[in-house]
Amino acid sequence: MERKKDPFEQLAQGPSAKFENTPCENNENQEILALKRLIHSMPEKEAPAGLTESILSSLEPKIIPRWLLIYRWALRPRTVTFQPLKLVPAAMVLVLGLAIAIQFGPGREDRGGTGHEELIPVTFTLSYQRAERVSVVGSFNQWNPASHKMHQLGNRNTWVLELRLPAGRHEYAFLVDGKVVVADQSSPFYQSDGFGNRNSVLFVNRDEPANI
Amino acid sequence: MDGNDEQSCIDRVLRGEVNAFGPLVERYQKPIFNLMCRVAGSPDSAADLTQDTFIRAYQKLERFHPGKRFFPWLYSIGLNLARDFARKNTRDLKTGSTLDPESISGCNYPGDQHDSMCASLEFVRLEKALDELPLIYREALILRYHDECSMRDIAEALSLSLSAAKMRVHRGLEMLRENYKGGIHGTQKRSI
Amino acid sequence: MVSFSYVQGQPADSSVTASVRAAREAGVPETSLNRLLMLAVDHRLEDDGVVRLVNFLQTVQTENLPIDPFMGKIEEGLAKQVPLNTIAAVLAQKLDDYRFVKSVLARTKTAKDQEISHQDLNRMVGSLDAGVSREELARFILEASTEDLSMLARATESMALLKQIRFDESLTEEILFTGLRRNSLTPSWDYLARVVATAKRRQISDDEIASAAREALEMNRSFADFMTDLGFTPRDLRHGPAVGR
């Protein structure tokens, strides 16, 4: 009968890696260490040839407002050298830049709540003919169309989105193709947006998941 | 290329030099492409997703905070795209690869050295065991032990707190160990 | 037509920088300024447009009014691709609404003794966007006998919502004034209009609804008791109206 091979025995004899000299945590067993070595040595696949050129060829030159470049310059970590004549305006901009720490990131995070309250499931449904894309915009996502994009069902005129919202009152509308504002015609409650449209009003109750 | 060089590239891009984005693409296309290979079913899809990641990063470049590391920010963009892709293609986020322990994935491994490594059963088994992990756990391990990122960078790349990122790495290793052992026993049974 | 300029060499100060600095010194929260600046980037606003919006926020802050509703209106307008001039006009109208409501409150005894919270002020002003006229709102505030500004805010919001679903206006006043007088218009009554809307769909008369509400508020019974009196369970409200059909 063949002895069952311990898989980690083979790994322990595998290619050496930087982890050999890495101090082990207390109680870290050899199996874990062997896996770390293996992950470290895992072969990488090469990206397809010409990818860089393909990416660059699809990009347009950026046009950035002057004031944003000033802020970015002010936010950069740097060593301030003392030059009496140039110090005052540079310092003013630097102080301003440090004082206003702009939250940069891949995109604004949408948060249905503050992170502390319970969130209740809500389903939005819209029937709309010949729409390319539909978003739900509202008080719960800072009216950001990128936050909550709806999905088409098999019947391509029906759009659905499920999300979780904190209990309370929320104002919202559907934004079709980035420009057409559609209110919930069957929702009894509305709020004039001041721009000539009506937003719908939703009341989310802790005890009741809502279908809108 | 260090952080200052990257910042210099970004500054030039923001001043209108498209080609200044090239060095950043060259530097990070491989890890992003490998991320997408783990999620997408084909190298073509992985290449498309890689391209989308860089294009999106370019579009949002003015929002990238000066002084931070570019790679974790780029990775988080890629991860969001990977998740969207997996969701739309009704793939289980845990199993982004079609890897079979008896075969090697469809992406090419250039060179004799990589061919022999790919043929190594340990790596095939590892890839299968990684495949069975939830996406975030898998990526946490790869960022930590393959790409050698700091925990802070991992937290940013995965949009987690530092403690949550540490937990994902720790727990991910435990889960990987179980998967790896289970995969080995399964393979041995097939070979009998 | 949007126009921007490159920065060549050493960056210099700008009008946007100056206006942001002034707004910050006036106390406008940094989170609000950050939100506004990111909106400006996303929507490619011209410098003078950014300055205009920042200066407006400074005005709001100086008058000790809540910033968030104005930030929300800016976000909403930009998302809906409303021209900046129109957004500015709507903001000015909204500022005037806040000033109006504060002036009415200043004429009540209650407001003399206590400061209204931003949340309660937002609710009262919101009733103007929900179809209540300034005259109706002023009359309601001045006639309501309550020392609880949160309850008063809740009542004004309910008044607006019940008006939208065409509930009898005199019965509305009876219900709400009862709740204010008895101090029983607690937070659970936020859902009053929603329950009334469903009750009306079930052909329950306004009189019957009002009778049940008045009794519950007069006797300090719970909102759940009111619903039960109408024949409701919480599960009844679980399936709301579909949208867009």
Task: Label this structure with key terms.
heterotrimer; A: about 210 residues; alpha+beta; Immunoglobulin-like; 5-stranded antiparallel β-sheet; 4-stranded mixed β-sheet; 5 helices; disordered N terminus; C: about 240 residues; mainly alpha; 2 domains; 13 helices; about 65% helix; about 0% strand; elongated; disordered C terminus
Outline the fold blueprint.
The complex is a heterotrimer of chains A (212), B (192) and C (245).
Chain A: H1 7-12, H2 30-41, H3 51-57, H4 66-75, H5 84-99, E1 119-127, E2 134-138, E3 151-152, E4 158-166, E5 168-176, E6 180-182, E7 190-192, E8 198-204, E9 210-211
Parallel strand pairs in A: 1-9
Antiparallel strand pairs in A: 1-4, 2-5, 3-4, 5-6, 5-8, 7-8
Chain B: H1 3-14, H2 22-39, H3 43-59, H4 70-88, H5 111-119, H6 121-131, H7 135-146, H8 151-157, H9 162-191
Chain C: H1 15-26, H2 30-42, H3 47-62, H4 68-79, H5 84-106, H6 109-113, H7 118-129, H8 134-143, H9 149-164, H10 169-181, H11 192-201, H12 206-218, H13 223-229
Q: Spans of chain B with pLDDT under 50 lasting ≥5 residues?
A: 91-119, 185-192
Radius of gyration of chain B: 18 Å
Low-pLDDT runs of 5+ residues of chain C are 1-13, 238-245
Number of domains of chain C: 2
Number of strands of chain C: 0
Count of the separate structural domains of chain B:
2
> What is CATH's topology name of the largest domain in chain B?
Rna Polymerase Sigma Factor, Chain: A
Q: Look at the structure and give the mean pLDDT of chain B.
A: 79
- C-alpha geometry of chain C: elongated
Mean pLDDT of chain C: 86
Question: How would you characterize the overall build of this protein?
Answer:
With 212 residues, chain A is of the alpha+beta class. Chain A is built from 5 helices and 9 strands; from the N terminus they run H-H-H-H-H-E-E-E-E-E-E-E-E-E. Chain A folds into 3 domains: 34 residues, no CATH class; 34 residues, no CATH class; 93 residues, Immunoglobulin-like, CATH 2.60.40.10. In chain A, a hairpin with a 3-residue loop joins strand 5 and strand 6. In chain A, helix 4 crosses helix 5. Chain A is extended and about 60 Å long. The N and C termini of chain A lie far apart (65 Å). Chain B has 2 domains: 93 residues, RNA polymerase sigma factor, region 2, helix turn helix motif (Rna Polymerase Sigma Factor, Chain: A, Orthogonal Bundle); 85 residues, Orthogonal Bundle (Arc Repressor Mutant, subunit A), CATH 1.10.10.10. Helix content of chain B is 70%, strand content 0%. The N and C termini of chain B lie far apart (51 Å). The longest helix of chain C has 23 residues. By secondary structure, chain C is mostly helical. Chain C folds into 2 domains: 92 residues, no CATH class; 133 residues, no CATH class. Chain C is elongated. Chain C starts with 14 loop residues before the first helix and ends in a 16-residue tail after the last helix. Chain C has 13 helices and no strands. The N terminus and C terminus of chain C are likely disordered. In chain C, helix 4 runs antiparallel to helix 5 and helix 9 packs antiparallel against helix 10. The chains are: A alpha+beta (212), B mainly alpha (192), C mainly alpha (245). Chains in contact: A-B, A-C, B-C.
